[in-house]
């Protein structure tokens, strides 16, 4: 999978408010599907679909012990997204630095 495809998966996974809510909850520690579904006011099948998107996106992992499936954040969940954002920030800062340099080279017009 290409870096662009990875970025697309991350942003797609983060695009839904329910999934962002699950991420907020899971950032505090592991939780079962039932624990994640309770405050969401969403049917269990929909919760499972959202969690599958987060898992396919590489943000969470799940483990089933007995009848309980527990989800947790991946420790490196946001590395790819952070790296992509940091590169855009570096590019943008470099563009502003070039603009400032050019503007410093242009003489100011004097008012008469």
UniProtKB/TrEMBL annotation:
Q: Where is the HTH arsR-type domain?
A: 1-93
Single GO term (MF): DNA binding
| Pfam families on file | HTH_20 (PF12840)
Keyword DNA-binding applies: yes
Bilayer-crossing regions: none
Gene3D superfamilies this protein is in?
Answer: Winged helix-like DNA-binding domain superfamily/Winged helix DNA-binding domain
Q: What is the protein name stated in its UniProt record?
A: DNA-binding transcriptional regulator, ArsR family
Per the UniProt entry, what species is this protein from, by scientific name? Roseivivax sediminis
């Amino acid at each position: 999978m290409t870096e662009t495809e990875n970025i697309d998966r991350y942003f797609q996974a983060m695009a839904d408010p329910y999934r962002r809510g699950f991420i907020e909850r899971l950032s505090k520690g592991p939780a079962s599907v039932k624990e994640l579904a309770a405050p969401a006011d969403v049917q269990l099948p929909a919760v499972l679909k959202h969690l599958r998107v987060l898992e396919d996106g590489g943000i969470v992992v799940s483990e089933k012990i007995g009848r309980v499936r527990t989800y947790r954040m991946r420790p490196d969940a946001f590395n790819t997204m952070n790296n992509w954002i940091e590169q855009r920030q570096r590019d943008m800062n470099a563009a502003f630095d070039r603009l400032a340099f050019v503007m410093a080279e242009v003489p100011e017009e004097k008012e008469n």
